[in-house]
Specification:
Elongation Factor Tu (Ef-tu), domain 3, 504 residues, OB fold (Dihydrolipoamide Acetyltransferase, E2P), 40% helix, Beta-Lactamase, 13 helices, alpha+beta, eight-stranded antiparallel β-sheet
Amino acid sequence: METGSALGERFMFTCDTNSPIAGRSILPTSNAEAPCVPCPIGIESLANTPVDDDDELQRVAALVELVSRVSSISSPENACKTLVNELKLRYGVRYAVVGLCNRTHARCEVVAISDIQQIDPKSELTLRATSAANECLARGSHGLWPPVDSENRHALFAHRQLAQWLDDASVLSIPLVDAQHKVRGVCLLAGNRKSLASAELGSFLQAASTPLGSALGLIQRARGNRFDRLSFKLVEYCRTQSAKLAFLLVLLGVCGLLLPLQYRITCDCELQPVTRRFIAVPFDARLERNHVAPGDLVAAGQLLAQIDARDIQWELSGKQAESHRVAKELAGYVAAHESGKAEIAKLELERLQLTIDQLEERASNLEVRSPIEGMVLMGDHSKFEGVPLEKGKTLFEIAPLDRMVIEVEIPEDDVRFVQPGMQIQIRLAAFPLQPFEGTIERLHPRAELREHRNVFIAEVDCDNSSGLLRPGMRGSARIASVRRTVAWNWFHKAYAATLTWLGW
């Protein structure tokens, strides 16, 4: 039958598979691997007290159980709370305290006190326990008050203050070191001398220092800060097949973002006629009748509207009658040899004749006809027949439809990527299944305000011999511009918007 000491040397501890330290060895495989932690006088003798095999097995089992419970908890604070409560329950001490070291291992902070759920950092107990823990950390060895020898009496000042504050209780401190000889924390036990001087407690603490320190160290590295947690999860995840697949997909995605891709600018467009003819009212008159409406196709010379002739005829008849009267007066003045009056009458007769000629010309141009063949774009006057018209007012707008121009509205932030000669694809809303491909012929040098947007107009010539296209038709256009990486195509506008928002 193997002895308890042999069992302890051969024992390898493996924690819960769900813990952050799953699969890692906590207890050393031999005594030679364990870090050397000095023991104060009194503790060493208790740890080396001979025990039988049953006691040894019970000690190892209790240690395994305690380390397993501590290491299965992912939070360092919760693990320390479990540790202090287990120590108090098992050994009946008054207080069990655990403090964890900071990153530099220069100071220790109390994170758990038995039977206390929430630690008050300003309480007297917390402050005195912190001082005792830092004193143990500075000494690098166990501490016991009252000391067995007089040499340690002055080196345990904080231990003595804590013991006196607890009504002359005994205080025991144990550094918790990991397998790399780094102190991860300090365990304080406070109670009567008898409970702290038991051989079972001394042996247990001697054996538990390294496993508990290693467990807390691993938990701190896994959960200590955001970077550590991320690193730990990343390392664990990279060991799986899914991680390798994910890494491959990420690599392919990065390579895909660096591939060259032609930048395509999407913008609105509108059909417009190449030329337009505007027909205006030649003189003040009334509209007698309107013969066409917007959208009608008209031929050259076709009658568009007719002007009312009554006002002109009435005025013409009046001027002709006045002209006959002045002519008679002129003949009388000449017969009477009144040269002055005759000259005035002659001038008045010439003025009247000019007016009559003008009215006769108007009377001969009462019909408004189309000068070209095309479509009537504007001029619905059917509801205004008989209404007086002012000279110069546009009656009709006519445009030929054999040739059309597509006005492409390029956004201001994309105009630097557009030049004449670039290929363009256009889809009109009226013919979505019939795309039109062309070339940019002209680019206006000045921006225009359309639909509350500042745009630059690019023109694309279009043949309309079939007559299907109509002015005013709208659609969308895609311009094949420069070649850039996929990442640039996707994110350059967001990057520019961010810089603008930041004021750069």
